Design the sequence.
């Protein structure tokens, strides 16, 4: 879809990437640098996006053969395209028409990438002979299902006519025979991918057990991706694809790809298209080829086969049989076609009966006649119509994307989004074929003869004042209009609809299917949660109209309270315990036991077990409640640590000896550790009593770090302090000052 219109495959034929640089490099040269060309694109081209710095991507919007059959290739020359992406069918078309572009030279063109189908050898030869001799022509093959290529080109490798150059990076491509064994070079087999790759599909829609996925890709070879191409790896390291393996013929026990037959048959100039089928006969397979001749091809006598097929200006097919003597000097003239409508239809019917032309060709002929007969009426409508005007019409046809309306000789499109302001799944919910209604012209493209209509535009837009009509957090009655896996839609009024997401249905059950709660047509209370006017979306909540059990629990309970509940599930990180209000609280593994490891502690609990727990945390907004079981009892380690802080002297027996540590039993469920290097001369044994000093408390690992060295140093310090204190005391007792001596002398003199 481009510009609101529908195009055939050839209408969107080529994405052309402008990448400037030197000629395709040799294997010993680096890749060419990127360079932007700041030129205005052609009017027939839309610049899609500037995806990377200095890279422009162009999309050719229209038929590659309009206004002439050389348009696309000339555009490539005019815009100085470096990387030209095209279909193999287009190159084949140029070859059959024998177009030669040598005079254009294409100095900027470096790479031509062909896709859609494998490029045959003759097309390689045509490109290098008639387009450019030094271009890097690469054929690529992959699929929509892998979002990329499996085999593709390589600018550092040689190009061999008819071959795809190599495997795609990151994909383990190989070729297997029918027995699942790898084939040798130059042998044909099935294209497989042996290892998972980034873009492989991992699931099909509504394929819960992956049955469809495995049948599509893994049914032929166990755990090996089977792509379905019948392929051969050449001695050059390249690949040749011979068609789909399910279309491979097996005459005389020899597997032949249909592409091999097509390549030979379509070399014949007068053959336009061919079809090869296998026909069971006498226990063998017979290859049968059907073909159609080129339009208006002259046989050896200079006469057409049975008549002339020609195109009208609208691209429809007309036919003139040799028996019809009516002159068609100007086959594109509306007047001539109209005057000979009867004879053309009769002639087409005769050709259909004789099997010379298909039902499709005959129908196209009739459509061409009818289109030209209605041309005058169309011109009148196009002359008076304008955007915004009102027009009457009759609903002609209903599709998934809208409705076609007959406006009197010309059709207008009423898109499904322009039928009503509310969301609908199909136009048939509002419209019926044959309804005569008034419409508003929302868009009119006179050049492309397209008319877009609107029905909802005849009424006021309910979204203009929606926030005033439905304020946030307000509660309303709504009617259930549709139910999906992810929630249900509810109508607030005739033009306004909102979504109740599955997460907003129930406070406690987040995965409940909407169909188990509501049915179509039910009236329910909903709260307005959010309104996005730009996206025209209303988010509704159903649970918000009910009591919030998380908030109720937080109001009725406090931190430290003991609650009872049943173990509902056990996970890798903890246990969920059912509480009042049908809500769950989580007991983390670290909160199960003071002494046991998490792995050991969880083994003592089972689903359905009744237990008590302490509330550690409550967050009603995040709907989380944290519980603890070990908190029901005193933490022995914590009590011991409080009573024996850093610097305390402790004595205990050796409980065990590790590689670099000795473990000391200090109390029940309290272990201390001493580095083994502290014991050089007198190495202890299990059971020996050790006295040491507490250096730190490891609360995370629930261990007490001890040291004999620290104790010795502490004792030395204490001894030094004690000696200093004694010396001071002695000094104080024996010290005599001069004043004391004078006083003593005076006392003796007085006695005398």
Sequence:
């Amino acid at each position: 879809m481009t510009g609101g219109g529908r195009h055939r495959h050839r209408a969107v034929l080529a994405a052309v990437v402008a990448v400037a640089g030197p000629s395709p490099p040799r294997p010993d040269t680096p890749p060419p640098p990127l360079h932007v060309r700041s030129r205005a694109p052609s009017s027939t081209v839309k610049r899609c996006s500037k995806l990377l710095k200095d890279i422009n991507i162009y999309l050719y919007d229209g038929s590659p053969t309009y206004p002439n059959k050389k348009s696309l290739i000339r555009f490539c020359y005019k815009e100085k395209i470096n990387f030209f992406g095209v279909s193999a069918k287009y190159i084949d078309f140029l070859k059959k028409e024998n177009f030669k572009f040598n005079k254009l030279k294409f100095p900027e063109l470096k790479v031509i990438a062909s896709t859609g189908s494998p490029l045959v050898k003759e097309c390689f030869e045509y490109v290098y002979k008639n387009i450019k001799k030094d271009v890097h022509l690469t054929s690529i093959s992959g699929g929509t299902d892998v979002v990329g290529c499996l085999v593709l080109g390589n600018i550092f490798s040689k190009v061999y006519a008819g071959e795809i150059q190599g495997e795609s990076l990151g994909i383990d491509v190989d070729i297997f025979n029918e027995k699942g064994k790898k084939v040798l070079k130059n042998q044909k087999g099935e294209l497989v991918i042996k290892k998972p790759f980034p873009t492989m599909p991992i699931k099909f829609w509504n394929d819960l057990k992956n049955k469809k996925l495995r049948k599509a890709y893994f049914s032929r070879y166990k755990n090996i991706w089977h792509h379905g191409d019948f392929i051969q790896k050449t001695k050059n390291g390249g690949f040749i694809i011979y068609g789909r393996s399910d279309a491979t013929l097996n005459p005389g026990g020899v597997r032949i790809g249909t592409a091999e037959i097509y390549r030979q048959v379509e070399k014949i100039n007068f053959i336009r298209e061919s079809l090869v089928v296998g026909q069971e006969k006498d226990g063998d397979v017979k290859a049968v080829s059907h073909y159609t001749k080129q339009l208006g091809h002259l046989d050896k006598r200079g006469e057409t086969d049975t008549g002339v097929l020609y195109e009208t200006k609208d691209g429809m097919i007309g036919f003139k049989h040799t028996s019809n003597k009516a002159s068609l000097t100007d086959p594109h003239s509306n007047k001539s076609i109209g005057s000979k409508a009867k004879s053309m239809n009769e002639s087409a019917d005769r050709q259909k009966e004789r099997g010379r032309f298909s039902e499709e060709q005959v129908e196209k002929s009739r459509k061409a006649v009818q289109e030209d007969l209605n041309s005058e009426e169309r011109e009148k409508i196009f002359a008076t119509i304008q955007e915004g005007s009102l027009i009457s019409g009759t609903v002609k046809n209903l599709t998934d994307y809208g409705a076609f309306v007959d406006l009197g000789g010309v059709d207008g499109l009423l898109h499904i989004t322009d039928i009503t302001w509310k969301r609908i799944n199909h136009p048939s919910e509002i419209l019926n074929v044959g309804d005569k209604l008034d419409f508003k012209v929302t868009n009119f493209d006179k050049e492309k003869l397209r008319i877009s209509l609107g029905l909802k535009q005849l009424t006021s837009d309910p979204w203009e004042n929606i926030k005033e009509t439905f304020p946030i957090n307000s509660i309303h009655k709504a009617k259930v209009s549709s139910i999906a896996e992810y929630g249900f839609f509810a109508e607030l009024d005739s033009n306004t609809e909102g979504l109740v997401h599955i997460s907003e249905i129930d406070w406690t059950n987040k995965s409940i299917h909407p169909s188990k709660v509501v049915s179509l047509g039910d009236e329910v209370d909903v709260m307005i949660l959010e309104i996005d006017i730009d996206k025209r979306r209303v988010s509704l909540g159903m649970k918000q109209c009910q009591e919030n059990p998380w908030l109720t629990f937080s109001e009725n309970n406090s931190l430290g309270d003991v609650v009872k509940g049943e173990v509902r599930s056990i996970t890798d990180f903890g246990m969920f315990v059912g509480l009042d209000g049908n809500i769950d609280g989580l007991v983390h593994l670290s909160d199960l036991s003071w002494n046991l490891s998490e792995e050991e502690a969880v083994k003592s609990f089972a689903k359905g077990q009744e237990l008590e727990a302490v509330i550690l945390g409550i967050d009603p907004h995040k709907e989380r409640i944290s519980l603890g079981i070990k908190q029901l009892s005193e933490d022995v380690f914590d009590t011991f640590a409080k009573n024996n802080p850093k610097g305390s002297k402790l004595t205990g027996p050796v409980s065990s000896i590790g590689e670099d540590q000795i473990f000391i039993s200090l109390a029940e469920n309290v272990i201390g550790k001493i580095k083994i290097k502290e014991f050089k001369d007198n190495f202890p044994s299990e059971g020996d009593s050790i006295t040491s000093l507490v250096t730190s408390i490891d609360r995370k690992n629930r261990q007490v770090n001890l040291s004999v060295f620290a104790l010795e140093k502490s004792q030395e310090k204490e001894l030094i302090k004690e000696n200093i204190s004694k010396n001071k005391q002695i000094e104080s007792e024996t010290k005599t000052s001069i004043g004391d001596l004078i006083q003593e002398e005076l006392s003796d003199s007085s006695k005398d």
